[in-house]
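Pilot study result, target chain (130 residues):
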Amino acid sequence: MKSTCGPELHVETLYINESGAKIKMCTYRTNLYADGQRDSIPRVKEYHLNPTDSVKIQGEGLYQWTDSVFVIFNEEKIWKNYRDSVNLTPSIYNGNEYQIIYPIPENKYHVIWIFRFTPEHIKAATDLKE
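Predicted structure:
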């Protein structure tokens, strides 16, 4: 029997550290309750990037399996990204902040999303001790 479904989409996400800081990315599962309270359970994954490092993740990035991504710069500043903050700028969830490339131009089913951490992200972060 012939399948009527097209080829499966193959997505990779590349995070590049151009911020000049050491980065720790932590993902959390977060439930948002009607009263606005958040309930986080233990860290799901953690990634470390030195300045000029990059990390490639199979699939649609850190948020594919989790809700919240906290990015810590030099163990001093934290930039919190919640699933419901997609429209904030900058945001790790906002597709407008990704560069999208097709490594094999004739294959539109293989996509790499590229997200760059820059000094602007450090400016958006708050002191870790707050």
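One observation from the pilot: The chain has a mean pLDDT of 81. A full batch analysis is planned for the follow-on phase.
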